[in-house]
Design brief:
With 310 residues, the protein is mainly α. The chain folds into 2 domains: 51 residues, no CATH class; 211 residues, MetI-like (MetI-like fold). It is 71% helix and 0% strand. The N terminus is likely disordered.
């Protein structure tokens, strides 16, 4: 009689080390889980951010009946660019609305551009003074300027309106530009202060040896070197000005100075304007800062990061 003996593997001891193959697989598995989590997070953020823009574009590229159809279409059906033709004045209908929208776009460009120029001029002078010059209460003044960033912007709305009203500047470009400048100046000063602090002092010392003044050194030496930082601050200021709504809503009351954000919001409650046309207005309004940010993105990144690293 043959007796077969089956070997049974005894369980591993409590303190035994895992096999090398398992040790190699576990870190790989953790990396895969982390990569999957990051990918899902990015997809959720993109969906949350871009889907409203896509839906506005989808609605603007169809007819009114197509936009109101149920169930909703994920692609324009039927496809139509009539809203953009009306908005840009290509067709004869809605020509008054087209001129109104075009004027509001011009107002937004003037106000945002004017605030950008004024803010950058003052911020360059102020940031350079804080970064290089020595004067009484320098640190206190600089901290006070930066502390205004902690204040809610709308807390200053009524005081600024009273000031502009007393100066008879309500419903003018100048009122909006000055208010924008007062709000954007601390941020621009802080960005340029970091950038000017990173510029080597040897460049300025060489100019001083040749007899150049502070202003001549700033214009001839520092500004050309700091152009990436200045461009970044200018672009950020323009984008912030374009996105404003409440301040121009309070400071302007007619089309002569109302920017596009206020005009589109006012048209939202008017039933005479088709819903698809409103969506086309929103797409074009968002397209301007979007194109600026995409085209000039490298200037923003290089300017901000270069000023942050010494």
């Amino acid at each position: 009689m043959t007796v077969s003996v089956t070997r049974q593997h005894s369980p591993a001891a409590p303190g035994a080390r895992p096999r090398p193959a398992l040790r190699r697989l576990r870190p790989a598995g953790r990396r895969s889980i982390r990569l999957l989590g990051r990918t899902l997070s990015v997809l959720v953020i993109l969906l949350w951010s871009l889907f409203p823009l896509y839906w506005a574009l989808n609605t603007s590229l169809t007819t009114l009946s197509g936009a109101e159809s149920r169930p909703a279409h994920l692609v324009p059906a039927p496809f139509s660019i009539a809203s953009y033709q009306q908005l840009l004045g290509v067709t004869g209908s809605q020509s008054g609305f087209a001129s109104q929208f075009g004027r509001s776009l011009l107002n937004a460009v003037i106000e945002s551009g004017g605030a950008m120029v004024l803010t950058i001029v003052i911020a360059v002078l102020g940031a350079y003074a804080f970064a290089r010059m020595e004067f009484l209460f320098k640190r206190t003044i600089f901290v006070s300027v930066l502390a205004t960033l902690l204040l809610p912007a709308y807390a200053t709305l009524l005081p600024l309106y009273r000031i502009m009203s007393s100066l008879h500047l309500v419903n003018t470009y100048l009122a909006v530009i000055l208010v924008y400048t007062s709000g954007f100046l601390p941020l621009a000063t802080w960005l340029l202060f970091n950038y000017f602090s990173s510029v080597p002092k040897s460049l300025e010392e060489a100019a001083f040896v040749d007899g150049a003044s502070w202003l001549r050194t700033l214009v001839s030496i520092v500004i050309p070197v700091a152009l990436p930082g200045i461009a970044a601050a200018a672009i950020i200021t323009f984008l912030l000005g374009w996105a404003q709504f409440l301040f121009p809503l309070v400071l302007t009351s007619d089309l002569s100075s109302q920017p596009v954000t206020v005009v589109v919001a006012a048209l939202n409650g008017q039933r005479i304007v088709p819903f698809t046309l409103l969506m086309a207005c929103g797409v074009l309004t968002a397209a301007v800062p979007g194109i600026v940010a995409i085209v000039l993105n490298r200037f923003i990144i290089s300017g901000v990061t270069s000023g942050a690293v010494k």
